[in-house]
Amino acid sequence: MNAPEMKSLDINEIKQYLPHRYPLLLVDRVLDWEAGKSITAIKNVTINEEFFNGHFPHKPVMPGVLMIEALAQTAALLSFMSAGIKPDDSSVVYFLGIDGARFKRPVGPGDQLKMQAEVVRHARGIWKYKAVASVDGQVAVEAELMCTMRSVADAGQTVG
């Protein structure tokens, strides 16, 4: 039996699935993914990141909310690819919730954030993920995330 083929995406392929752009596109490469199951991606953290100018000039640290956002983008990629959908002007992704977020290690310039998201549940258009980001094998942040895809026409309606 052959080993499963790894599925990766470069930045140009990522931009086909995520509407985010600089400075808020926080996924540089997808290393592997399996539809409806899991995804592994990376964010290369460099001193050129705009947020380091103010957070903090004397000791650059990636803001925790941006680490969570990077995990949410990674999870959104898996949602889109699992559904076989590429976003367009008629669709939007909502970040619905964060549970159990824990920050365990600071992330700074020169670090490579390895992000993993695993589907916990998918029902009625809502995806729930267990997500972990690590640097050199050390957990930096972990959380459960929820997101959903909606049409722009339904964007003003209550979710869930």
UniProtKB/TrEMBL annotation:
Pfam families: FabA. InterPro entries: FabA_FabZ (IPR013114), FabZ (IPR010084), HotDog_dom_sf (IPR029069). One of its GO terms (cellular component) is cytoplasm. One of its GO terms (biological process) is fatty acid biosynthetic process. It is found in: Cytoplasm. It comes from the Bacteria. This is 3-hydroxyacyl-[acyl-carrier-protein] dehydratase FabZ. It is an enzyme of class 4 (lyase). Gene3D superfamilies: Hotdog Thioesterase.
